[in-house]
Specification:
Length: about 450
């Protein structure tokens, strides 16, 4: 691997169908098509997935692209096609030096003292929402979890409940996310890009109404923290930067967390011995978790890691080459769109024993430590997910109360069918057999 080009041999071309290439397969089952094309072409190939892209597979590829030691891969160039219309100014699509500056300021809101406050703040909101959940033979898990995580996001990020606007705000987030994959990229009604742009307008107006009061407030919520945060050189966010970051982080905090929680509920339903084990851990602790208690849930931690291995919320991560480079003898020209697929890496037989099996103990055995980029549900390098520790706190706080209050199961013959893009979620909403314990 090198940014110095020693060969002009490009990766083999996986052509697929005229015009659309392998787009349908990458949309419906990216793991299967990656494994198929790997067998045919190896760990690097060119294909068409909405755009022409060079796909690089495996931990070495993840490290080459995500670590980006030579600074030759642009996050903005990779993400712009998909999200600029609805998430402009998103931290994950920024390049240095802007990315470094913005991230330094944002980090203030994710340090441990802040996480401790968020944990204290979110637990009453969780308890309030769960108090309304009842036993049901077809409990639609995804829908309920999504509303719960939106409640938490607004409580922790905004310092207040969305209230009567909740449904409208939630739909605005749904529309903006779905617009990222719109085939018609112009905002023409009634197509999804138009709905996404309208959704963004709704969110911008919502945050703008609150901006002045948050600038004047010293409350501990994310919104106020971003309004006042400065880096060591005194740089501060503009109003537009605050709004852009709030919209993106609110989406990430409830959409990707909903994906992970739903996958975890599914895995624990299909593996009742693990559900019993993690429930026993939570029952040994009090109703309310302290920050120190988070480390006293080791089995739950293993299960979260395994759910993220099997069902990472984002199956791929795009970049764009800003200079000619080479990966394992394959020439990549400047301007090439490049994609890495954490989902594929998480199922490679060379690194994982029985990779399709739910086996949380693999993390206790250190199976994930053979290569520093074989397990990358949060990405890697300078663009590693800024909110991963917040997500871990939120997931554990929610699961702790769910495990103490409910049992859930699925028929033995239930078959999970996920929508794989843009964010993984069950097509049927995951209808659990849900039982309140107290």
């Amino acid at each position: 691997m090198s940014s110095v080009v020693s060969s002009k041999m490009r990766a083999p071309h996986a052509r697929g169908l005229p015009l659309i290439g392998y787009l349908p397969q990458f949309m419906s089952d990216p793991l299967a098509i990656c494994r198929t094309l790997e067998r045919r072409h190896g760990l690097a190939f060119r294909t068409h997935i909405m755009i022409d892209v060079t796909v690089l597979l495996g931990p070495e590829a993840n490290q080459f692209v995500l670590q980006n030691r030579d600074g030759i891969f642009s996050s903005h160039g990779g993400w712009a096609y998909f999200i600029d219309g609805v998430f402009p100014g998103a931290i994950m699509s920024m390049d240095d030096p802007e990315h470094r500056l913005q991230r330094r300021i944002m980090q203030q809101a994710f340090k441990q003292p802040a996480l401790l406050r968020y944990l204290e703040h979110m637990q009453p909101a969780i308890a309030e929402r769960l108090s309304h959940w009842q036993s049901h033979p077809r409990f639609m898990a995804y829908e309920h979890i999504k509303q719960l995580t939106l409640d938490i996001a607004t409580s922790v990020f905004m310092g207040e409940a969305v209230g009567a606007e909740a449904q409208r705000i939630n739909q605005a987030f749904v529309d903006t996310v779905e617009a990222s994959l719109a085939l018609i990229r112009l905002p023409i009604p009634p197509f999804s890009m138009w709905r996404g742009v309208k959704g963004r307008e709704t969110l911008v107006a919502y945050f703008q109404r609150l901006m002045a009061s948050k600038r004047a407030s010293d409350s501990p919520d994310f919104f106020s923290q971003f309004c006042h945060a400065r880096d060591e050189d005194g740089h501060q966010f503009s109003d537009q930067e605050v709004i852009d970051h709030m919209i993106f982080l609110m989406m990430a905090a409830h959409d990707t967390t909903t994906s992970t929680l739903t996958s975890l509920l599914y895995a624990l339903a299909m593996n009742p011995q693990w559900q019993a084990r993690v429930r026993e851990e939570s029952q040994a602790l009090g109703e309310t978790l302290s920050f120190e208690d988070l480390a006293r849930l080791p089995a739950l931690d293993l299960c979260i890691k395994e759910a993220l291995r099997l069902y990472p919320p984002l199956t791929s991560m795009p970049r764009q080459a800003t200079a000619d480079c080479e990966f394992q003898g394959h020439f990549i020209a400047k301007g090439t769109s490049v994609g890495v697929f954490p989902l594929h890496t998480h199922f490679m037989d060379d690194y994982w024993s029985s990779p399709f099996r739910f086996d949380p103990e693999r993390f206790a055995r250190g199976e994930h430590k053979q290569h520093m980029f074989q397990y990358v549900p949060f990405g890697g390098g300078a663009h590693m997910c800024l909110g991963q520790h917040f997500a871990n706190v939120q997931i554990k706080a929610i699961m702790h109360q769910l495990l103490r209050g409910f049992r859930w199961s699925l028929p033995a013959d239930y078959e999970l069918k996920n929508q794989m893009v843009p964010i993984v979620k069950p097509k049927d909403g995951l209808p659990l057999q849900w039982q309140r314990m107290r």
